[in-house]
Amino acid sequence: MAATALDQALAFLVEADRLKSVERQTWLTDGSRQENSAEHSWHAALTAMVLAPFASEPVQVDRAIRMLLLHDLVEIDAGDTFLYDAVASADQAQRECAAADRLFGLLPVEQSLADRALWDEFEAGQTPDARFAKAVDRVNPVLLNLATQGKGWRVHGVRLEQVLARNAGIAGPLPAVWAWLRSRLEQAVEAGWLRP
After folding, report:
1. Which residues are 195's β-sheet partners?
2. DSSP three-state, residue 148
3. Which of 119, 113, 109 has its CA nearest to residue 66?
4. Residues 80, 137 contacting (CB under 8 angstroms)
5. Residue among 46, 45, 108, 36 nearest 71 (CA)
6. Torsion angle, alpha carbons of 165, 21, 61, 9, to 10
7. pLDDT 10s per residue in the chain (196 long)?
8. With helix as H, strand as E and coil as C, how does 6-68 read?
9. What is the CA radius of gyration of the chain?
10. What is the C-alpha separation between 92 and 102, in angstroms, rounded?
11. Cβ(81)–Cβ(71) under 8 Å?
């Protein structure tokens, strides 16, 4: 018996639940454990809602939120690639693209094409909505590291120049947020949470 569109949609949702098992390197603010990718996606979506008034150009927040809810689904297959791991980053795009093919392919065709197009738009980062979503995606790990006295940074020996280089994309879409974070990063170095 052929799967109906509803069968496909529900099977996709069951598969998407696996995102809760993908552990990230960022710690919860209480320091009790590392967050998982599903928690990160929810927090990023909420961050988009809250930070939209600070965007430097008009954005469709609902589209950005959809991108943020979809963009890390590929980690179900590809795993979370730590932002500061150059070796793992080398084939990240290839692994994630293959995962996107499989995961979005589980959905009914029309929805599959629409969601994959949003995922591709996020990855390309060329539209105002995608630039905003990508910036938002980078804000939370910095905030959580600041809230935990650099717990994730300290574990991995992360340096200020790495954080600045990997998060510079926040500056254009969210200049006031980047200025705020930038000042706190200097304080993190002074406090010994982040290597100079």
Report:
1. 159
2. coil
3. 119
4. no
5. 45
6. 140
7. 678 999 999 999 999 999 999 999 999 999 999 999 999 999 999 999 999 999 999 999 999 999 999 999 999 999 999 989 888 888 999 999 999 999 999 999 999 999 999 999 999 999 999 999 999 999 999 999 999 999 999 999 999 999 999 999 999 999 999 999 999 999 999 999 999 9
8. HHHHHHHHHHHHHHHHCEEEEECCCCCCEEEHHHHHHHHHHHHHHHHHHCCCCCCHHHHHHHH
9. 17
10. 16
11. no
| Sequence letter at residue 53 | P
Per-residue tokens: 89: 């980053």
- Give the tokens for residue 83: 């932002």
The pLDDT of residue 86 is 85
Hey, what amino acid is at 180? W
Token pair in block for residue 21: 């098992």
- φ, ψ of residue 24 to 5 degrees: the values are -105, 175
CA separation for the pair 185, 196 (Å, rounded): 10
Which of the 8 DSSP states describes residue 69?
H
N-term to C-term CA, the chain: 61
Tokens 């499989």 correspond to 102
pTM score > 0.85 for this model?
yes
